[in-house]
Amino acid sequence: MTDATTLFARLRPRLHAIAYRMLGTVADAEDVVQEAWLRWNEVDRPALDSPEAWLVTVATRLSIDRLRKLKAQRESYVGVWLPEPILTESPETPEEIRERRDDVSLAFLMLLERLSPDARAAFLMREVFDADYGEVARILGKTEAACRQLVRRAKQQLREARPRRAVPQEIHRRLLGAFADAMRRGDFHELRALLSEDAELIGDGGGRVPAFARLAGGKRLAQLFYAVKRRHGEGLRVEVAQVNGEWALLRFIDGVLESVQAFETDGERIVRVFVQRNPDKLAVVATAWGKR
Hints:
CATH class of the largest domain: Mainly Alpha
Radius of gyration: 20 Å
Helix content: 55-70%
Number of helices: 12
Shape: elongated
CATH architecture of the largest domain: Up-down Bundle
CATH topology of the largest domain: Butyryl-CoA Dehydrogenase, subunit A, domain 3
Distance between the termini: 30 Å
Largest sheet: 6 strands, mixed
Number of strands: 6
Number of domains: 2
Order of helices and strands: HHHHHHHHHHEEHEEEEH
CATH superfamily of the largest domain: PhyR, sigma-like (SL) domain
């Protein structure tokens, strides 16, 4: 490997992390990284003051441009658009758990969709990737004052929509484990007991498979999960896995990954379920799970 190739390979995970958090899909993130690689091979590298800063800037700006186009496409998306899930390794320390949950959970990526591309980039670079405002301004081609305003407004928007208190991972894991067990057994009463009265389900089928865009009410959700077990019997399999830094459920029907389900809880019951059923967005998880 040349030094230039080695440097890019070292920075590739960071560039991919930026692009994925900006765009919410693995394929789009990989396209951004590939385009950054092509530009890296064309630039006069010895003339760069900081190759790393240059690559981060290029990946961020490419992500902003792509997100502007994607937002227009997502307006005509069939049903609700949810981010593409990815399997993640279990964090080893409490600090890693907090960091992973804060910056890559499916619920958080959904919230980021509320932001404009520039605001999303400014917020992520400042709050997730710890860039100072001078660096954020350079990346976005704006003044520091403008970037501070972007971040301040983004934080306000996200604060209004985020859960009031974080639930410890061990409690989250215990609730999901109980819910998974109830799904496997087809225990309607246990499913109902684990869901709050006003629990909400948000689903993404992408027009490829049937999916409830939104369904509200703990009893209705319990009936839905119960019906899947009644229909498929022993063909139903549910696995607990780390998805986007949080415990989630993988539901298999006759050995095929049918959905990835992420949950929000209040520490006692489940209050929201994100169900990704779009086959195009399940392929990465299915492949990764099959290699385990």
